[in-house]
Amino acid sequence: MGDAVGAILLASVTLYAVLGGADFGGGLWDLLAGTTARGRAPRDLIDESITPVWEANHVWLVFDLVIFWTAFPRAFASVMTALALPIWLAVGGIVLRGTGFAFRKEITRVSLQRVAGAAFAFSSLVTPFFMGTVVGAIATGAVPADASHASLAAWTSPTALLSGFVFVAACGYLAAVYLVVEAGRRGDRSMRAYFTRRAQGAAVVAGALSLAALFEVQNSDPAFFNRLTGRALPLVVLAGVCGLADLALLTAGRTKGVRAVAALGVAAVIWGWGVAQYPVLLPRTAVTLTNAGATQATFVALVVVAIAAVILVVPSFALLYTLQGRHLLGGGEQGTPPAAGPRRSTGLPSAAHAEPPPPNHRPGSASRGVALGLVAIAAIARRRSPR
Amino acid sequence: MHANGMVLLAAAQGSTQDVPARAQMATTLGFHIILACFGIALPSIVLLAEFIGLRRGNQTAMLLARRWSQVMGVLVAVGAVTGTVLSFEMGLLWPGLMRQYGSVLGVPFGVEGLFFFLEAIFAGIYLWGWRRLPGWAHWWSGVPIAVSGIFGAISVIAVNAWMNTPGGFTERNGRITSVDVWQVFFPRSAIYEMPHMVLAAYMVAGFAVASVYAVGILRGRRDRYHYTGFALGFVPAAILTPFQIFVGDTAARAIAHDQPVKFAAMEYVTQTSRQVPEWLAGVYVNGHIYAGIKIPYLDSLLVGFGPGTKVTGWDSVPPADRPPVVWLIHLSFDVMVGLGSLLLLVGLWAAWTWWRRRRWPRPLLFWLLGAVSGLAAIVAMECGWVVTEEGRQPWVVYGLQTTAQAATTNGGVLTSLSIVIVVYGVIGAATIAILLMLSRRWRRDDRDDDPVPYGPPSALADRPASQVKP
Q1: Where would I find the beta strands (DSSP E) of B247-337?
Q2: How far apart are CA A253 and CA A189, in angstroms?
Q3: From the CA of A248, how many Å to the nearest CA of chain B?
Q4: Which residues lie below 8 Å from residue B81, measured CB to CB, with a gap of 6+?
Q5: DSSP character at residue A278
Q6: Which of A69, A303, B266, B370 is the most exposed place for a label (fewest CB within 10 A)?
Q7: Dmax over Cα atoms in chain B, in whole Å?
């Protein structure tokens, strides 16, 4: 049962990464969009793509935390103690990101808009970085079994810092790929080209950083490297293939399926990490998925919660993304009925009714992530059940 | 970097971080709980307005619903992030609690996660679907927000109720060996804590909405728009107030049994005895109660409906197991009860006038009370949290784990506390400033909307389109 809950945790971490991560990436491109005049078009596109969905995507983080502390309380307490500083910094980033984003929308004075926008954009950069250092610190075994004090060395190792940068690059990559498709759907050629260039750049940077991290792990933690290139090799290869495939598709100007491939690549990295360290929860300690503090009843309750999430939450997400994909979620109270949108030149009224939902939009990646998680849970459960 | 120094300092201090950690938890929870109230109850009020707007073609109610949902958008966003802070703080400030009981109290949090999902997803649809989704479809997209708000609140309160009356698990050699999920979700105190908080949320949101329009009415804006806005907030809140007082009264009686020391602190019961007097106000210092009004026998009467009822005093436990600041608990309790009663009277006043004359009361006093009712509801709700949280001290899990055992062994909580106070101060001020700004913008819009005497009527209908991004 511990294994099943571990898979559920990894599945919801994956969903947070491919959905919430893209929202952080949007903030990153907002940060890099340049001066007010030049950055208007990309910022508007980012804003419209993130607005209705970021809160729902953000809930995955809360869900991850709850599963973590409920299923593996000992490990949770240790991580929260040993890595308190980067976690606090990430929390600060989350607060500034959310409030900055929400406030910017309502403010009309440009100078204040800039302040709120800067808070949103800058914290979109630092939050994934510190989250990455936390994951890097856990993966390198820098968290002891029963930590009683915070450790600076734990998350400032080269691997942990590299992992922070990989997170930032991956967020930027996901966001740029999603925005390419979004711009394409709106018929905005210049924005499509704009984000294609950025998606390619981010793909190269994320790939290079991942390779650097891999080499660093080879030196600093050969055992982990062997598992990454051993039983986790198919996933590592899959991640690389997805990255290259996306690069090729974007270069060829094809957008069909790029989002799903990008999300799959990121998911493969996360599952590669999970498979490489299975069944150990905190590497270099004896803390595993089964002995980190929870009882069987708790595991069963969490599996029930996860099933309820699949039944209730997944269709709701599908509805949200479908409505967003059809441009039925607009500017809210101040928004306009689609027919009257003055700045939109593409035939939106028809988009609301006639246009079928594009086959590979975000529900695709979401349901793929969930499906991936479920398959893994089923596989592990089947392997465990004969006992 | 002084981090190494901080680490050494932390090791020397041990778990003496519990006082700053409590202060930080109080700050962040006290801030978030106001937003949580709006998150739980405001959707219902907005839906009520939209329902009236759709059903009766009431354009004023419709306009209010649209504007309130913009307010809701701001409050939900700030509430989502401040709620996330609390989730992290469970581990960052209270690793001892999570290490020991995370697998027990995590179960209701997991259920809460589901409702939080539904709330956030449908908030995305409802808030941004205005004017794009057809009328009733849009209304129905808001219903899951209201429903999951209530159930999400119930799930979180289940955790707090469990901390007050823990049960549903067995602990052997300091380890949890089995968990009864049902009992964890519905501990003894759940039956009164859950409705008490949900009703409090509705009172806070309702009276707060009413106050905004009462202020407008006091400033002379006596129009249909303001009276409708006032009524949509005031009526539900005033109707729920008597129920809240009944639940609160039941809760107090139950606490006398479930957590006698907390009750003793609430009512200044120094010794276990019969014929216990009730103290109204008063500050307890070193065995004396200053400036209090003593009503003989009343406490015994309230607890057991007879002057001979025995009430457990705080002398039943050693001094180390008593809450540290009893006067704060007692005064908070009195303020909560006092403000609740005041709100009941305001509601009764309105009901009486409506019954006799079919209109709102005219005296200035009523509208002044209406204008402060939102603040009063918020203060009463915060006082209630002070009572339940301070009254449980020194325990974090009543009778099982002390707050000091639960607190982080890391140093630097004073630093994070200072940063939290500054950041939350800025966020709170910015939130209020933005709501005031929205209100000014709408007032300007309304002035511009005044029908142009000889203008074409269709000019009105086109106006919003030109205002996508001002």
Answers
A1: 278-285, 288-295
A2: 11
A3: 34
A4: A58, A94, A95, A97, A98, A99
A5: T
A6: A303
A7: 85
Spatial CA neighbour of B203 closest among B10, B375, B12, B386: B375
Q: Please name which of B434, B75, B464, B431 lies closest in space to residue A108, comparing C-alpha atoms.
A: B434
Residue B294 phi, psi (nearest 5): -100, 125
C-alpha B281 chain-centroid distance: 23
Phi, psi of B165 (to 5 degrees): -130, 75
Report the DSSP beta bridge partners of residue B175. Answer: B172
B285-302 b/e (C-beta count within 10 Å ≥ 16 → b): eeeebeebeeeebbbbbb
Would you tell me which residues 365-384 of chain A have a C-beta closer than 8 angstroms to some C-beta of chain B?
A: none
Measure CB to CB from residue B128 to each of A71, A102, A332 and give the nearest one: A332
Q: Which residue of B has its CA nearest to A72?
A: B103
Q: Kindly give the interhelix angle for A258-277 and A158-185, rounded to the nearest 10 degrees.
A: 160
Strand-pairing partners, residue A352, are: none
C-alpha span between B357 and B353 (Å, rounded): 6
B378's CB contacts (< 8 A; 6+ apart) are B34, B37, B204, B208
Which DSSP letter does residue B271 get? S
Residues of chain A neighbouring B91 (CB-CB closer than 8 A) = 65, 69, 76-77, 79-80, 87
What one-character DSSP code corresponds to residue A356? P
- Which position has the token pair 């009925």? A337
pLDDT reported for residue A334:
52
Inter-axis angle of helices B135-164 and B190-218, to 10 degrees?
130
Instruction: Tell me the pTM.
Output: 0.87
- Each residue of B175-198: pLDDT tens digit? 888 889 899 999 999 999 999 999
Question: d(Cα B191, Cα B196) in Å, to the nearest integer?
Answer: 9
Instruction: Determine the distance in angstroms separating the CA of B85 from the nearest CA of chain A, rounded to an integer.
Output: 6
Q: What is the pLDDT of residues A55-66, one digit of tens each?
A: 999 999 999 999
User: What is the percentage of chain A residues whose pLDDT exceeds 70?
Assistant: 85
- Please tell me the distance from the alpha carbon of residue B123 to that of residue B146, in angstroms, as a whole number: 10
Contact A42, A191 (CB under 8 A): yes
Token pair of A285, please?
A: 């300690």
Say what the ipTM of the complex is. Answer: 0.86
The verdict on a CB contact (< 8 Å) between A79 and B91 is yes
